[in-house]
Write a structure and sequence with these properties.
This protein is an alpha/beta fold and 581 residues long. Helices cover 38% and strands 16% of the residues. The chain binds zinc ion.
Length: 581
C-alpha cells in the first residue's frame, strides 16, 4: 500500500489545498456597505437559523479513507475542494463492523448503527428456512417497475420472484424515516444510485422514490410506485447510456501525473473485465457492435456511469423540486463506479485515480446544479463511503517483499473443514452436505448434524480448530463465542460481533489476515475488518456545519446523529453513534 506517500500528501494538502480563509474581521470597523456584504457572506457560513432546505447524502462505493488526501492535489475547484472549504473533514473515520460490504455500509450510513442491529449483515445471505441465497433488498412483494425479469437476463427470468426489491430487510429507522415521521409528506426523500441496494438502503422505509440503473435505464419497484414517473421515462428515452457506446475512456490528466502518484499503469493481478483490458485507453463497447448486455457491464465499469447518474440526480432535484418545499428534503446519491475500478485494478492503479478525478468533476456539476436550484448555503452535503479496499496482493508482493499477501481458495478451506468433520463424526449421507458457505463463514446443515449425532456447537468447534491453523486466517469464531461477546468488544472479535445477527446467522465466521483475498486469478475485493477497508471519508459541508479538519477517531455510526441534529430531528432510535458537533 502507498500509505506513506498518501500521508505525506495529506499533511501538505491540509495547508495548501483544503485550507480556507479564517479570521473574518469585525463588521464594526468597516463602512456600512461592506458591512452588509460581509454580513451576507457571514450568514452563508454561520450556523443555520432554520433547518436546511435539502440534505444531500453522497455515498461513494469503495472510496477509501486516504483517497481525498492522495488525489486531492489533482482535484478541480468545484467538487471535493468546494465541500472541504465549506465544511468539516473527519480524516479518521472508520466502520466498526467486520464484514465491510456495500449493503452493510449503506445501511449504517443513515441508521447510525451496526449490522447486528440494522439487520443488513452482507449483500446477500443464506436463508436458513429455504437454504437459498437471499439478496439484501429482496422482496417478492415488490416487483421491479420499468424493466421485466426477462429483460434483466436468463437468471432473473428463471426466478422472477427473486427480482423484487424493497427496504423490508432493513430493520432500523433512518434519518430520512425520522424526517418523514416528524414532517410527514412535507419532507420528501429520494435516493438514486447505480446499484439497487445503495439507493434502497439510503432511502429507508418511507422514501418517495428510489431509482437505480439496470441495463442502461433507471428503474424502481412497486414498493415506491406502480409506474415510472414521466420525468424518469423521459430521461430514459433520451438514451444517455447508449449515446456513450464506443466512447473512449482515457486519462483525464497526463500519464506522468498518474505514474508519479500510483506507479505503473499495468500491475500483475489486475483484471480484464468486460473487455476493458488492463491499460489505458479503452473503448466502451463490451466487445459488441451495438448496445447490449456486455456493453452495459462495460459501461457500469467506466466513469461514464457516474456521469449519467449525476445527470439523473440533477433531473430529480429539478423535477421533484427538492429543497423548494415547506420542510427539509433529503436526497441520497450512491456513486458505484469507483467500486468497479477498485475491484478490477486495485487502489494503486491509474484507473482508480482517474475514476476519482472524474468523479470530482462530476460532483462539481452536481453541486453547480444544486447551487442554481436550491443554493448550497441552504443545503447540507455529506460525503462518505460504504467501505474501502485492500491492495492487490501482487502489488504487496512486488513492493513489500517479505510481507505476507496472497489469494485464498475457499474450496480448499471447505475441503479441510469437511475432512475434520468426517474424522470426528463420520461422513454425511450421500446427497447431503455438512454446510452451506457464504463469503465469511458457514451454516451447518441440521439434517447432516442429526444424521451423524452431532450438535451444531460441537461441529462448529471442529471447523474452528481446523481453520485456526491456516496461515491466512486472522480470526475464526463459533456462534457460541459471538453470542457471548459484547457488542462494544474490541478487536476483530468485537467487529465480527457487530456484523453478526443472532437470528439465523452463520455457525462459524472468519476473517483473513491483512492482504489476503478470496478471489482467484485477478482483481481484488473487500469485506474484512482491516483499516484499509474500514477507513472511509466523513465530510459535512454547508448550512450549520463548522469548518476545518478533525483527526480524532470517529465512526460512520456518528453520521446519522450528527445529520439528524443539523436537520432538527431526533437521531434514529437504534443509532449507536454520537453527535460530532
Ligand atoms: Zn465492491
Amino acid at each position: 500500500m502507498r500509505q506513506c506517500p498518501a500521508e505525506r500528501i495529506r499533511r501538505a494538502c491540509h495547508v495548501t489545498c483544503f485550507g480556507h480563509p479564517r479570521g473574518v474581521p469585525s463588521p464594526r470597523r468597516l463602512p456600512p456597505v461592506s458591512a452588509l456584504a460581509l454580513l451576507a457572506a457571514f450568514a452563508a457560513v454561520a450556523p443555520a437559523a432554520e433547518p436546511p432546505r435539502l440534505a444531500v447524502v453522497i455515498v461513494i462505493d469503495q472510496f477509501r479513507g486516504d483517497y481525498l488526501a492522495r488525489f486531492g492535489p489533482h482535484f478541480g475547484e468545484g467538487g471535493f475542494r468546494r465541500l472541504l472549504a465549506n465544511g468539516v473533514n473527519f480524516t479518521n473515520c472508520h466502520y466498526r463492523h467486520a464484514i465491510t460490504l456495500t449493503a452493510p455500509g449503506h445501511a449504517t450510513v443513515l441508521t447510525g448503527t451496526t449490522p447486528d442491529a440494522h439487520g443488513v449483515t452482507a449483500n446477500d445471505w443464506v436463508d436458513r428456512g429455504t437454504w437459498e441465497t437471499r439478496n439484501c433488498v429482496e422482496d417478492p412483494a415488490s416487483p421491479l417497475v420499468g424493466i421485466s425479469p426477462a429483460e434483466l437476463g436468463p437468471v432473473a427470468a428463471a426466478a422472477p420472484a427473486k427480482t423484487g426489491r424493497s427496504p423490508r430487510p432493513l430493520l432500523a429507522a433512518t434519518v430520512s424515516d425520522e424526517l418523514k415521521r416528524l414532517r410527514g409528506p412535507k419532507s420528501r426523500v429520494f435516493a438514486v444510485s447505480n446499484k439497487d441496494r445503495s439507493a434502497i438502503l439510503l432511502g429507508g422505509q418511507q422514501a418517495e422514490g428510489a431509482y437505480w440503473d439496470e441495463n442502461g435505464r433507471f428503474v424502481t419497484s412497486r414498493h415506491y410506485r406502480a409506474d415510472l414517473p414521466g420525468w424518469v421515462r423521459a430521461f430514459n428515452a433520451e438514451g444517455r447510456v447508449a449515446a456513450r457506446f464506443g466512447a473512449t475512456w482515457d486519462r483525464l490528466l497526463d500519464r506522468s501525473v498518474y505514474d508519479r502518484v500510483q506507479g505503473p499503469d499495468d500491475e500483475a493481478g489486475e483484471a480484464d473485465t468486460a473487455g476493458l483490458g488492463r491499460t489505458f485507453p479503452r473503448k466502451i463497447t463490451g466487445g459488441l457492435a451495438k448496445p447490449g448486455p456486455a456493453f452495459f457491464t462495460a459501461f457500469d465499469n467506466s466513469p461514464f456511469s457516474a456521469e449519467v447518474l449525476a445527470d439523473f440526480a440533477m433531473r430529480a432535484v429539478t423535477e421533484e423540486k427538492l429543497g423548494r418545499g415547506e420542510a427539509t428534503d433529503l436526497l441520497g446519491v450512491g456513486f458505484s463506479q469507483v467500486d468497479t475500478a477498485g475491484h478490477n485494478y486495485g487502489p494503486d492503479s491509474h484507473e482508480i485515480m482517474d475514476s476519482v478525478l472524474r468523479l470530482d468533476r462530476t460532483l462539481a456539476r452536481l453541486l453547480d446544479h444544486i447551487e442554481r436550484e436550491v443554493g448550497l448555503a441552504r443545503c447540507v452535503v455529506v460525503v462518505t463511503a460504504d467501505h474501502g479496499i485492500m491492495p492487490l496482493p501482487e502489488r504487496v508482493q512486488r513492493t513489500q517483499p517479505g510481507v505476507p499477501a496472497g489469494r485464498v481458495k475457499p474450496a480448499e478451506m471447505d475441503a479441510l473443514a469437511v475432512k475434520a468433520l468426517e474424522a470426528r463424526f463420520g461422513a454425511v449421507p450421500k446427497g447431503e452436505a455438512w454446510f452451506t458457505r457464504d463469503n465469511a463463514g458457514i451454516h451447518l446443515r441440521p439434517a447432516s448434524l442429526a444424521a451423524r449425532g452431532a450438535t451444531a456447537a460441537e461441529a462448529a468447534k471442529v471447523v474452528r480448530e481446523a481453520w485456526a491453523a491456516l496461515p491466512y486466517i486472522a480470526a475464526v469464531h463459533t456462534r457460541e463465542e459471538l453470542l457471548a461477546t459484547r457488542r462494544d468488544a474490541d478487536g476483530i472479535l468485537g467487529a465480527l460481533r457487530r456484523s453478526y445477527r443472532p437470528e439465523g446467522d452463520r455457525d462459524v465466521v472468519y476473517a483473513f489476515k491483512r492482504n489476503f483475498v478470496a478471489k482467484s486469478g485477478a482483481g481484488v475485493s473487500h469485506g474484512s475488518p482491516h483499516d484499509y477497508e474500514t477507513h472511509v471519508p466523513l465530510l459535512f459541508s454547508g448550512a450549520g456545519v463548522p469548518r476545518g479538519e478533525r483527526s480524532e477517531p470517529v465512526s460512520v455510526e456518528d453520521l446519522a446523529p450528527t445529520l439528524s441534529a443539523l436537520l432538527g430531528v431526533p437521531a434514529p432510535a437504534n443509532a449507536t453513534g454520537r453527535r460530532l458537533f
